[in-house]
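Entry for the shared binder. Reason: the reviewer on the internal report wants the predicted structure included alongside the sequence.
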Amino acid sequence: MTLLVIYLFVHSLLDIVDQLTRATTHIKTQPQIGCNGREIFCNRKYSNITHIATHDAPFVGVLPMENQNVDIPTQLDAGIRFLQAQTHRNAFGKLSLCHTSCVMKDAGLLKDYLKVIKSWLDKHPHEVVTILLTNGDHLHASEFDKAFHTSGITPYLYTPHGDPSKWTLDSWPTLGELIANNNRVIAFLDYGADQSKIPYLLNEFSYFWETPFDTLDPSFSQCKIDRPAGLAKFPKTVAQRMYIMNHFLDTKVLGMEVPDRRDAKRTNAWKGKGSIGEQAERCMGMYGRAPVAVLVDYFDRGEVFKAQDRLNGI
């Protein structure tokens, strides 16, 4: 344990030096034009647009359990439109944004996180943001519903109509339609959603499937369907669901897996071994279409928006 603490302390100091020696002012603000920054997206269905997504978006800093370098408003200003976060109940019984556990990292209450996103949306009327939450403690969906309502974000939430089991890629509206109706937030919960009672909180795996996550393989050499389990046996269903390509790399430190900050620039490159482009090409070759979300750590390192453009044919 002592060796682990020493290593993590030194590792963190080195990362702090790395962080301080490169200013974050190179993060450009995306022009607010068209729909999500692009005129051509206005007439594209939500299911036909690839977005770079920030993995563990609210866990910001230089420690090993922190996955991003800048806060939520800066991520949104830069052009991120898909935010993923873990939730757990904290020691006071409140629904909080916690990395694995609230002892390891507590980034604040879910309702406050949603307030930040809502505040940003108030000032950016032509933007659509996706929120993906994990339900680490398998809490009842009503607890999430309370946080959404308390935050004031619910007027922006999109509610799909019809049976989720019959939903297809063509069932999704265009970004222009979402913006015109002011339904500019699409919210997903990985487990525990109950759309019969809370219709705006969507069951992630009724609409998405995911590639494996927490990989230690820097080449990202596969693109199999990891979740939901068993879906690969139903190719017709696979063909009608969007997918998330997990493209964040972990590394082992004395037996413990932590985000690989040091290699983020290479991992988040558009081209090259283990790049976003290489994995996306593999996935597109298997499934005939691009992912709707590419989940990354340290989005400000590498060429994530170049990758986003190329995957959208821009």
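Summary line for the report: Confidence is low (pLDDT under 50) at residues 20-25.
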